[in-house]
Amino acid sequence: MSQRAATAVEPVGRAKPSNLVIHDNSLTVFIVCVLFVGGLVVFPIIKSKRIRVTPSKVVAVVIAIGICIYNGSFTFLLVLLWPLSFIWFPEYWGNFTGYIRGQYVDEKSPPILVSLMGWFFLVVFPLLFLWIASR
Question: Please, are residues 68 and 62 in contact by the beta-carbon 8 Å criterion?
Answer without folding.
Answer: no
